[in-house]
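Quick one: Biotin carboxyl carrier protein of acetyl-CoA carboxylase from Psychromarinibacter sediminicola, structure tokens please.
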Amino acid sequence: MANPTNDDDDVAFVQAMAEILRSNDLAELEVERGSKETGKLTLRLSKVARQSAAPAAAPAPPAAPDTPATPTPPETPAVEDPADLPGAVTSPMVGTAYLSPEPGAAAFVKVGDAVAEGQTLLIVEAMKTMNHIPSPRAGTVKRVLVEDSTPVEFGAPLMVIE
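--- reply ---
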């Protein structure tokens, strides 16, 4: 029997497929690799559909000739999508987010912490592999957008670093 694929190879494969999904602007990608003898890996990646901004208010109907025009209410500001913020750190894969290295331990970072580029912010577990998510830049943690032990999708915002 041939050796099963290495976990590092699987992680590299998942990351390569995620890059193909992103670079080709695909909504979904499903790939199968391996064989019955060597072990099969089926991977399905799907982009998270982001909610669009609140629809603009409809224009007010024309005022009747004998009545004064009523002012239209101001438009409500669009709901802020954390993924659109300049300091958003997004998930590079589908998995489960863990804010600490082990249950009961202190979180890697919390709001207000200063972080260095490359510092571990959290872990995303995918296919029983713990993937440390590094800070893409030095800055301060402004928001933590996920809860511990919650599932995350590819591209989902995890934290905001400014």
